[in-house]
Amino acid sequence: MKLSVPDVLHNLRNTGSLSPAALDMVRLMALMAMLIDHINTVFLTPPVPLMYALGRMAFPLFTLIWAMNVQRTPERLQVRANRLWLWAIVTQPAFSLAFRLHQPWWALNILFVFAGVTQLLALQHRYGRKGSLAGGLLLALMIFPLQPASYGLPGIMLAVSLATVTGRSTAEMKCLSTCTAVLSLLCLNGLSHILYMPAETLLLATLPALVFPLVAVALCRDLCPEGRQRFMPRNFFYFAYAGHLGLIGLVQYVLA
């Protein structure tokens, strides 16, 4: 596998550079990383550092896949937003059950990040600057409940910046958004801890969030070159996300 960071970053800007099968492979790797991370958080005491590091690539990969698809049909942005809001609300009870001993009851699951940013894009597409302002105010209200478990402001900024990078913006805006995406990745997993835990933060949080997604995308691109069709069912992620949270909650209840 030839790994070139500039080449991978070019792939992030070019939504056609990854085949449908490669995108499904990225989804699968993200699901595996998320499952590893959740098992590590909920069932293992103390958590295993390597499993924690592997889990850092789940959200960046899911955000990349969402960003590559969200603006392909701008006229359907509100439909996408409605579907994400529905799945986020439906999944919330399972999320609260799975993490009831680890997160406050009001913490929102990660689908609310994608629903909120998709809603921003839908309002922007329909109403222009006024829509952007309304969507921005909505996201500002969501920062606090997203902070405990779903990355808060850095997570929102990563989603917004990747949607811009993979969208139809100008070259200058894409360059600025790429820098914002990198900054968001740096801040995604508690950069404030670097002052008193510098080695642990860099090795287990910051670097994995930056490097592992690039490696995963490059690997999936090489394993599934252009022309390969997707192999995962449509909407599989939503069912897998809600289902694995419900299963984790059930296992905790049985073991209690």
Outline the secondary-structure elements.
Blueprint: H1 5-13, H2 20-43, H3 49-55, H4 58-70, H5 77-98, H6 111-127, H7 129-150, H8 152-165, H9 171-187, H10 198-223, H11 236-255
Description:
By secondary structure, the chain is mainly alpha-helical. The chain is built from 11 helices and no strands. It has helices at 5-13, 20-43, 49-55, 58-70, 77-98, 111-127, 129-150, 152-165, 171-187, 198-223, 236-255. The longest helix has 26 residues, at 198-223. It is globular, with a radius of gyration of 18 Å. The termini are far apart.
Rg for CA atoms:
18 Å
What is the rounded distance between the termini?
A: 45 Å
Helical/strand content category: mainly alpha
Q: Could you estimate the helical fraction of the residues in percent?
A: over 70%
Overall strand count: 0
Helical run tally:
11
Main sheet properties: none
- β-strand percent reads under 5%
The SSE string, one letter per element, is: HHHHHHHHHHH
Mean pLDDT: 89
Spatial shape: globular
As residue ranges, the low-confidence spans are 1-5
